[in-house]
Write a structure and sequence with these properties.
heterodimer; A: Aldehyde Oxidoreductase, domain 3; Aldehyde Oxidoreductase, domain 4; 3 domains; five-stranded mixed β-sheet; 28% helix; B: Enolase-like, domain 1; five-stranded antiparallel β-sheet
């Protein structure tokens, strides 16, 4: 049975796949014994710090580092962003690194930073973006870029045919990365040609080449090492200016290690932003719930550069669409991939609008989705099955009530909502884009299959059999038809003699082992205190497809983590900017809030497995479950209080404002 | 961010501590739990030459009942000790309720009642790194002369952000303060200045040593209501404590209401006492107190929630606290 193709074993033959296994690195991480880049102290290590631009938009006119260079204990000074760098020294967000220094200890590095004189020319900044841009002005302004206009079908006549239409605002703000381990590295040069880099990264395979390119050296001369990474979520795939600076500083200092790690405040200010996405959406349907038309005017921040775009309506193939997107050039901070880039934002807009439409139709959103399930092609069947599973876990049908079906103020109102999500990514070599499990397990599986085949070929003579007659099972290599003729794994391996087997597995490769594009359904059960506007998560259910589940415990952990992140961005997270100074106001974790264990409620995860799912092979799960929580929670709040809170995060003042507005308009819809 | 350098002094008695304070003031600061001070030192809000670690003064670690007088709580008693004290829960419930909402369990294990009373006022423009504050031109409270919260103003509006003092005000607590001339007593209601920067009447050569809860206030029913975005951990964005005593007929004999988290000091809502005394507790009476409390509240944009919202929450929470205190909820 020496197979020539690679194939995941049938359910009946799986030994470890699908079993609840503990993380191998769980104990060292939970006990604090795991050492991260942040923990590293190398012999003779220097400490890096940097001068940061205090302005949201400015031009570096001149830099004087002479005083710092003369200070005792200062070993290297390196200009990152001088008057001639970039567009004539232009800086696009507050906190941009300008000059880096390395010194014998942190206080000396800090003193050196203070001794550096940088002259700036301040330029006008834009740091707010939740206001709908006026299109006529946008077309004239350099700050607004009309990025896309698209028409599908015949939206005009579709809206005319629509018996019920709804129009509303939806969106989410710029939020920022906040990894448990901040960004940074320790760089050293063992000799003048070789760089040894400890770096907090998601991209051990690729980061060396990026550094090499940045400082013009052969990639093969960069040795990258990392034992553990304290979170990345997309923000640690690429190289940062401070990463390059650490290497440059070390070189200037004669090769001794230089540590450059961001602190919490700089992490929040500069480690990367999830772009905002806002939209005014109009949707139309027939009275029976048949979804006919979508119109959206959307805008969002793409940071200082590319305007980006939004693929809305998200997942839904609405037959008639009219769409426009305006990219807002602003000075809030650099856009960066954030766990399922753009998907949560698109989901919030799409499912918010459809949920409001369902409410206006007097339909349970569950029924509305089922009614239009064909528009979710090609995953209609998956979503449909997941909806039924989620219904069981949440007791949806038994508990659902029409929107705002309670008019007593001051009593926490409870509501449930559902949400569908989707994710689709190309494979990648780094640990990001939810490609790790698909890439790693497929490659490992191919390697293991090859190794097994080669081992069998070696030991077949010892068992007096043909390789094709052998199998590996229960820790033994045995003759398939006669289990008494066998060798233990150790005995078999000893037949290899001095010649060890080295097998390299790759992905992509032969065989249909992996896939992409998954479907998920999430439901949220919330309470809203209508006198204070405070939203409390009671329970969330996530039903997720990720193909063949290799390790259920870890896959479920990924979903749980995503839901917790979802609660944070739905209720708390926003990069709050001060309009006057252009700086971020909430640069600490008192005010940049993340959910604690007391805030997330009961989280229930169900992975779709078995026939129809397993044969798709392994699919990444890191990102998909992050897509839906914002929309699910927003819809649940709308259901509870009877009115939409347009923009995330659902802070209590916004909830009350929405309630008051609805009451001012003559009661709740 | 690392701590600035300092010399650590570790006295074993109040007298030694007072000696150190006299010798090194104003270049000295007291550390007990450190939960407030250390993050602020990292941000260079404080860079004292000396840190006076008073944790070795064992006599300040106890809760002691003095029959006929009341109860004495040492400044070093941790918030979790008070939270877990059955005696405090029974006799001074409002304090237990307030203390239990401070930060998170881990921080309550470190944080002390003395530290909570002396907690620094907080503001979006103040609790930031040195680099950040410098980029915004500093502010009145630290290193500067302008206010970002009340442009043109000369007064600091940083908000008092501790929970327990609102409860202690309801209990008419007194403080014992040790200084070069020995000990003095001061009602808590006279301790705070309602100015964000010079927030309390404690000279830099003095230290808070004990809190006294008078016996006459024992047995009041009490509730603390706190506006917090997260259930798990947050400073109060608004807080209301209410303590009251009813007679057998359900008539309120005496009541106190105090607010925190909105003004530069925790404040008693003086009129609430008269509004409630002699009344039956009902929604109307509670609503009246809500209005009175909202009138005392003067929040500014020291946090990310709007001042209007925080004042409104003082109204809501005062109403709820009074109702809760009256029904044992």
């Amino acid at each position: 049975m020496a197979e020539n193709t690679y194939q995941w074993p049938d359910a009946s033959k799986r030994k470890l796949i699908g079993k609840r296994m503990n993380r191998v690195d769980g104990p060292v991480k939970a006990s604090g014994r795991a050492k991260y880049t942040y923990d590293l102290v190398r012999p003779n290590m220097l400490y890096g710090d940097s001068v940061k631009c205090p302005y949201a938009h400015a031009r570096v006119k001149s830099i004087d580092t002479s005083a710092a260079e003369k200070m005792p204990g200062v070993k290297a000074v390196h200009v990152i962003h001088g008057p001639d760098d970039g567009a004539k020294g232009e800086v696009f967000w507050a906190g941009t690194d300008i000059v880096a220094v390395a010194a014998v200890d942190e206080p000396t590095a800090r003193d050196a930073v203070r001794a550096i004189k940088v002259e700036y020319e301040q330029l006008p900044h834009l740091v707010l973006n939740d206001k709908e841009p006026n299109l006529a002005e946008a077309e004239k302004s350099e700050l607004y870029k009309v990025a896309s206009k698209e028409t599908v079908g015949d939206p005009n006549s579709a809206f005319q045919q629509s018996e019920v239409t709804h129009e509303g605002y939806y969106g989410s703000p710029v939020i920022t990365h906040c990894c448990l381990e901040t960004h940074g590295s320790v760089a050293e040069w063992p000799d003048k040609d070789h760089l040894f880099l400890h770096i907090s990264t998601q991209n051990v395979p690729g980061i060396g080449e990026q550094v090499a390119k940045a400082i013009d050296m052969p990639a093969s001369n960069v040795h990258v090492h990392q034992d553990h990474v304290g979170g990345g979520f997309g923000s640690k795939l690429g190289l940062d200016p401070w990463g390059v600076a650490a290497a440059q500083l070390s070189k200037k200092a004669g090769g001794v290690p230089v540590k450059m790690m961001l602190n919490r405040a700089t992490e929040l200010e500069t480690a990367g932003c999830r772009p905002s996405a806002y939209a005014r959406v109009k949707v139309g349907a027939k009275k029976d719930g048949t979804l006919l038309a979508w119109e959206s005017y959307a805008w969002g921040s793409g940071g200082p550069g590319a305007p980006g775009s939004l693929a809305i309506p998200y997942v839904w193939k609405v037959p008639n669409q009219q769409k426009q997107y305006v990219g807002v050039v602003n000075h809030i901070g650099p856009s960066r991939a954030w766990r399922a880039p753009n998907h949560p934002q698109m989901c919030v807009i799409t499912m918010g609008a459809l949920d409001d439409l369902a409410a206006k139709l007097g339909m349970d959103t569950f029924d509305f989705v089922k009614k239009n399930i064909d528009l979710l092609d090609p995953r209609s069947k998956i979503y449909s099955e997941e909806l039924d599973v989620a219904n069981d876990l949440m007791q949806w049908k038994a508990r659902w009530h029409p929107r705002g079906d309670s008019d007593t103020l001051g009593i926490p109102m409870e509501a449930i909502s559902l949400q569908i999500g989707d994710n689709q990514y190309p494979p990648d070599s780094a640990s990001g884009g939810s490609s790790t499990i698909g890439g790693v397990s497929s490659a490992t599986f191919r390697a293991a299959t090859d190794a097994k085949r080669q081992l069998i070929a070696k030991v077949a003579p010892a068992l007096n059999a043909q390789p094709a007659d052998l199998e590996v099972a229960d820790g033994r290599v045995r003759v398939a038809s006669d289990a008494s003729r066998s060798l233990s794994w150790k005995e078999a391996c000893s037949k290899l003699g001095a010649q060890t087997l080295t097998v390299r597995g790759t992905n992509p490769g032969e065989g249909d082992l992996t896939n992409s594009g998954v479907g998920g359904v999430q439901m949220a059960d919330v309470s809203v205190d209508t006198e204070t506007g405070i939203v409390k998560i009671n329970k969330m259910v996530a039903v997720q497809d990720c193909g063949l589940v290799i390790s259920p415990k870890q896959a479920e952990s990924q979903v749980l983590g995503a839901m917790i992140m979802g609660v944070s961005y739905a209720l708390y997270e926003e990069k709050v900017m001060d309009q006057t100074t252009g700086t971020m106001l909430n640069t600490n974790m008192d005010n940049y809030r993340l959910a604690g264990i007391g805030d997330v409620g009961e989280l229930v995860v169900r992975l779709m497995t078995g026939p129809g799912y397993d044969e798709r092979g392994v699919i990444g799960i890191g990102e998909p479950p992050t897509v839906s929580p914002g929309a699910a929670i927003s819809n649940a709040v709308a259901n509870a209080i009877g009115v939409r809170v347009p923009f995330l995060p659902l802070t209590p003042d916004r909830v009350l404002e929405a309630l008051e507005k609805a009451q001012g308009e003559g009661g709740r819809a | 961010m690392s701590l600035p350098p300092f010399k650590l002094l570790r006295p074993r008695s109040i007298e030694d501590a007072a000696g150190y304070l006299s010798a090194h003031a104003p270049d000295i600061q007291i550390i007990a739990g450190g939960t407030d001070l250390l993050p602020s030192m990292k941000q260079r809000l404080f860079t004292p030459k000396y840190l006076l670690d008073i944790r070795g003064i064992d006599e300040l670690r106890t809760i002691r009942s003095i029959p006929g007088h009341g109860t004495e709580i040492g400044a070093l008693v941790t918030l979790s000790t008070i939270e877990d004290s059955e005696f405090i829960r029974r006799s001074y419930r409002v304090l237990r309720e307030a203390v239990a909402t401070v930060a998170s369990p881990i921080l309550r294990n470190m944080g002390t009642i003395g530290g909570n009373i002396c907690l620094d006022t907080r503001c979006l423009w103040y609790n930031q790194s040195l680099t950040w504050r410098k980029s915004c031109g500093f502010c009145i409270k630290k290193d500067g002369d302008l206010c970002h919260v009340a442009p043109g103003g000369k007064k600091c509006w940083a908000a008092f952000s501790a929970d327990s003092p609102a409860a202690l005000l309801c209990l008419e607590a007194e403080l014992e303060i040790a200084g070069p001339a020995g000990k003095r007593r001061l009602p808590l209601s006279e301790f705070y200045t309602n100015i964000g920067d010079a927030r309390m009447k404690l000279a830099n050569n003095e230290m808070l040593t004990r809190v006294f809860l008078p016996e006459r206030m024992a047995g009041y029913d009490g509730v603390y209501q706190k506006l917090r975005l997260r259930g798990s951990i947050d400073y109060p964005l608004a807080g209301v404590a209410a303590a009251l005593k009813k007679n057998a007929q359900g008539i309120i004999e005496d009541a106190r209401v105090a607010i925190t988290g909105v003004n530069p000091a925790p404040l008693l809502v003086n009129e609430a006492r008269h509004a409630l005394a002699g009344k039956m507790l009902n929604d109307h009476a509670a609503a009246v107190v809500g209005e009175l409390a909202a009138k005392v509240a003067k929040p500014l944009t020291t946090s990310l929630l709007t001042p209007e919202y925080r004042r409104e929450m003082i109204r809501v929470f005062a109403k709820r606290a009074v109702l809760g205190a009256g029904t044992g909820v």
